[in-house]
Amino acid sequence: MAQILADRRDIDFVIWEQFNGEELLKHKALSGYNRKTCELMLTEARKLAINEVYPTMTDGDREGVHLENGVVKVPASYHRVFQLMKEGEWGNLMVSEEMGGQAAPPHIGLSTAEYFMAANWSLYSYLSMGNAAAEMIQLYGTAEQKEKYIKKMTSATWGGTMLLTESGAGSDVGALTTTAVGNDDGSFSLTGEKIFITNGEHDLAENIIHPVLARIEGAPAGTKGISIFIVPKFLVNDDGSLGERNDIQCTGIEEKMGIHGSATCTMTLGAKGKCVGYLLGEANKGLKVMFHMMNHARMATGLQGMAYASAAYLLALNYARQRIQGRDLKDFFDHSAPAVPIIKHPDVRRNLLKMKSYVDGMRSFFYYVTTIGMKEKLGETEEDRSFHGDLFGLFTPIIKDYLSVKGHDVCIQAIQVYGGAGYTQDYPVEQYARDCKIASIYEGTSGIQAMDFLARKIGMRKGTIFGHFIGEIQKTVAEAKKMEELSDLAGKVEAAANKLVEVTMHIGKTAMSLEYKTAFAHSVPFLETVGDTIMAWMLLWRSVVACRQLAADTKKKDTAFYKGQIKTAEFFIRTILPSAIGNMEAIMSTCSAAIEIDDDGFGGL
Ligand SMILES: Cc1cc2nc3c(=O)[nH]c(=O)nc-3n(C[C@H](O)[C@H](O)[C@H](O)COP(=O)(O)OP(=O)(O)OC[C@H]3O[C@@H](n4cnc5c(N)ncnc54)[C@H](O)[C@@H]3O)c2cc1C
Description:
Shape: globular
CATH class of the largest domain: Mainly Alpha
Helix content: 55-70%
Distance between the termini: 53 Å
CATH superfamily of the largest domain: Butyryl-CoA Dehydrogenase, subunit A, domain 3
Bound molecules: flavin-adenine dinucleotide
Largest sheet: 5 strands, mixed, barrel
Strand content: 5-15%
């Protein structure tokens, strides 16, 4: 069986059955779309991903990218498929029409993205990274900047990047040293070096537009003095044609653990000539502008983790159905009994169901947050939009971190299901595991996401945003309690949600006390327990929908699928959620050993 990348039946379940996609399509902003057109788009994207994009994934990994005379050459097979995707406008589905995109319903845009990311994230990123940069220009740019750059970027004629990181400024962006000096014509000349820049240079686009963070001469130190500049690889003439080559050069590329097809570049600005940049938005307000893009990128990174996990799970599942090894446990003493596919072994089944529970839970959570994002944009009133904006903000670090960390765990478990074969390059699961690891590092590491969640997010609007989230869990619990087969599971999710409130109050208070360092030493486990509780909630919610559908499914054609939902929830809630509650207990114990241990006490001296 060919790699199927993502479970179409499951995606349809989430979009149309769990989140009532047809209701969402009634919004006037989506009037050009109906269920049929959406399904057709997804079918076409799936075909393209499986037949054209996926075959480039291993090429990209083995061939990698090469820097030759300042130009980065991407893997040879990327060129034709990039053109196919560009011509089909698969990179700008969710971009507004005003910006040259197709304004597709977010659920459909994201499900196509799930397929493309699972097929070859590295290739897809060359196509789609310009969108987020273009959106920043749309929000903060001048009329001239919008006219010059946006449509070329959203059509992938020109690429886009984001240049924050420097060798001394990674998690602490405020430490950056790239400087900008004003020119007489209102532009700026930039000098500095940025490292680890994704797609900083490549041969797939005519031009690349770099949003660059830098400090204008004399600006305050730290984040308060950061501005953002548009720095084109080729300057753009007033008529839109390409002008002089700007002095922003790729001076090195990284050899990495994974995503070998993606160019990770050192970019040197203004070392040999003039690197011209144009201020985007107001001086010293660059971080606010860049955060707009970062939040977009953090959602996309969560999706990346989930897409890899889904693809790796399906590969492992397929392998487990085919690999014959060992006798069924019931024939333990019968040496003449036939060998069986490994999916018959209890431990392999446990492993597969664990992977499935995370993949299903993560997919539902991602679409749930997407729905909130839609309400933030399309809400009727300012208050409604602002409320959903805050709710979206609460969930962004969880999407970014939990999906990337658990996504990677699932990829590792997929290798385990394959046994020795999974550790070899004969099968793609080892590549998924290598490629996935970066997701919990870039766009802000786990530590940074967890700090954001604890320090800024749980207290938003005096805790009422967090309270709303708990209220949403309680609504699902109440629905599930009405169903005989779910009422016990509902009770367990309710208990976990109540415990989570207790832990949140405890860690929140500790973070504001003299023991604040201890609180932050528990911030990553805290974020993880929030994510685990959300998984349990999402799987319970799926089961509520599945129970209703089972009752209505008179033709019994989807019985296995729906019953599978209930078994998945049962597995997670009975066997994984208790560990999460144990972790909550551990956080409540306020253990300060990690803070108290002497630096020398760590050993290794
Ligand atoms: C493949 C790849 C692609 C990338 N693409 C881009 C890109 O396109 N553009 C771009 O600008 N950057 C990019 N990056 C950079 C990436 O965003 C940074 O690597 C990341 O933010 C971490 O910074 P750092 O590597 O300097 O690690 P450090 O900041 O040195 O962090 C090291 C460790 O210390 C922890 N830590 C640091 N500070 C704190 C703190 N205050 N509290 C708690 N823990 C802390 C971190 O969590 C981490 O575990 C990319 C990196 C890679 C590897």
